[in-house]
């Protein structure tokens, strides 16, 4: 099967499976994240919410290098989705990859024009094919449709000075389905192995629409940046643009397009708890500080 067809290998269909959540639970969650009421009532309560999807696992590239990536184990979850009835058109959804990951579905295709915008039009994602740099298999002259080739998700950012964007490799993944035990084991490794991003940080990311300018609290620079991101884009596209709050280490930044501004410096674990509540809406009791005390991620030393 050509790798630009937008389908799984051999054009496979994902069978419909029962949803683990009740319609009322789905409606409640969609309501919390602001999904249109008409969709919630007509599709979810009407029983047509799509269930044709499965989970996969990806390796994260821990360097920005496209040519010589350094990969983790298969520790990152992605989702393969076939949203259209009786169609094998397949999309990748990734709801948890840090501050540069997908924010929209992307067709499973390495066709040249298959890109999607990120939070704004200056950020773009694409899929390519490749092999693990330490693969023992002979791939010289081989077709990229071979099963030992995997999918690569890449990102680029257009700079304000007009410098041509460079593509960076984020994750690499096969089409293999993963199951609950795989995710359990990956989660254990990520949380308990004494190295890496999540061992050394408490990471939290929040997305919001650029149209919610009241969140900038009268910050003129932020509003100017938001207007600059919208400029030159069709209204129906610009209204989907977003920005991010990112908390990692001692910094809490607000990212609008290519512009990143530190809005808070965290000096203690108590500061972090306040930021989680005030900015991200996550309430953690102060007695939970006992669980980070003495660990690499603690800000209290």
UniProtKB/TrEMBL annotation:
Signal sequence extent: none
GO function terms (MF aspect): acetyltransferase activity
Listed Gene3D superfamilies: 3.30.2140.20
Family note: Belongs to the arylamine N-acetyltransferase family.
Protein name: Arylamine N-acetyltransferase
Source organism per UniProt: Asterophora parasitica
